[in-house]
Amino acid sequence: MKRTRGAPGRVTICFFMESDVHRPTEDELRVFSERIARRLAERPLDLDPGFHRERVAGLLRIAGEASFYQLLDLPPTSTAQEIHDAYEQIARLVHPVNAPLLGLEGREGVLEMLFERITQAYLNLSQPDRRKAYDRGMSSQAWSAALGPAPSQRRDEVRDLSDRYYKRALELIAKEELFLAIEVLREAVRISPQADLYALLGKLQAKNPRWLRAATESLQQAMALGSRDPELAAALHDAQDRLAAGEWRAANPTTGMSTRAARASKWEDAPDVEVFDPEEEIGGRR
Q1: Are the C-beta atoms of 16 and 5 separated by less than 8 Å?
Q2: Distance of CA 245 to the CA centre of its chain
Q3: Any residues with CB less than 8 A from the CB of 255 and at least 6 apart, and which?
Q4: How far apart are CA 23 and CA 119, in angstroms?
Q5: Is 83 exposed, middle or buried (0-12, 13-18, 19+ CB in 10 A)?
Q6: What's the confidence (pLDDT) of residue 286?
C-alpha cells in the first residue's frame, strides 16, 4: 500500500502501484463533484441517518486496502452499466456536502478523500483499456477478495437493512414517489439480492418505457431467485412485449414516459441512463 499526495491538503491511499491506475485530475474531480452535488440538490438522500453513517464508516475502514471492485461493492464480472450505477449510488453517499448529515462539519476532508477514491475506482473500471490494465495488475489475493463478499457485510445486518429499504420503498410508492422508490430498491437488491425486492423493482421500472430493458432483467432475476409472486410471469411477459414493440422509442426524452402515460403519472424528471464523460465536459468549458 502506498500513500501519495494529490490536490493540496488531500491524501490519497493507493492499493496498487501508481503506474497501474489512472489518477483523477483536479478537473475530473471537480466535474464529478459538481455533478453529484447537483443530483443531491435535485434529489436529496432519503436514508436512515444511522445507516448512512454506518455505510460511510465501513467505506472509510476499507478505503486503503480494498480493490476498486470492493469499493464499488461489485464483482469483477460487472457490466459497464452496473459500474456506473454503483458509482452514482456510492458517490451520493460520500459526497462532501453530506458532512453536516454525518456529523463531520469541519472535517469535510475525510469525505473528500473518500469521494476521490470512489471516483478513481469509477474512472479506472468504466474505461475498457484502463479496466484491462487494472485487472492485469490485480494479485491473486486481490482477485479472491473481490470475488468474495464485501468485508463489511454480515448476513443478519444485510437482511435487516434490506427489510428497511423494502418498507421505505412501499412508503414512497404510496406517495407516488416512484423514482425515489426505484433508487431505494436498487440499493436494496445491491446489498441483498432477494426475489421479492427484484419483483417490486421490475414492476416499478416497467412503468417507464425507457427502462423496459432494466425492468425485464429485474423481473427475470426475481423468477430465477424463486419468486412466488403470482403476477410476476404476466408482468415479465408484458414488459418483454412492450420492449419488442419498441415502446421506448415513443417515450418523452425528458420524463422517459410515453405521452399518454406521462399525463397520468407523477413520475417527474426521471433521468435517462447516463454515463459520465468528464473529458467531454472539461473540454467543453475550455
Answers
A1: no
A2: 29
A3: 262, 267, 268, 269, 270
A4: 9
A5: buried
A6: 46
Residues of the chain with pLDDT under 70: 1-20, 139-158, 248, 250-286
136 vs 108: CA distance, rounded Å: 34
Burial degree of 125 (CB within 10 A; 0-12, 13-18, 19+): buried
Phi-psi region of 153 (alpha: psi -120 to 50; beta: other; left: phi over 0): beta
Q: Which CATH architecture has domain 155-263?
A: Alpha Horseshoe (1.25)
User: Residue 109 and residue 173: Cα distance in Å, rounded?
Assistant: 36
Domain boundaries defined on the chain: 2-147, 155-263
Q: Which residues, listed in sequence order, are joined to residue 3 by a DSSP beta bridge?
A: 13
Contact 209, 261 (CB under 8 A): yes
Rounded to a whole number of angstroms, the distance between the first and last alpha carbons of the chain is: 36
Contact 232, 199 (CB under 8 A): yes
| 95 vs 40: CA distance, rounded Å | 9
pLDDT score for 166 = 87
Sequence-distant (6+) residues with CB within 8 A of 61 are 151, 152
Beta-bridge mates of residue 4: 12
Q: Give me the helices (H) in 175-277, please.
A: 178-191, 195-205, 212-224, 232-244, 259-263
For 137-155, write each residue's pLDDT tens digit.
Answer: 776 555 555 555 544 445 5
Q: Which residues of 57-78 are buried (b: 16+ CB within 10 A; e: fewer)?
A: eebeebbeebbbbbbbbbebeb
CA 231 – CA 94 distance, rounded (Å): 38
14 forms bridges with which residues in the sheet? 2
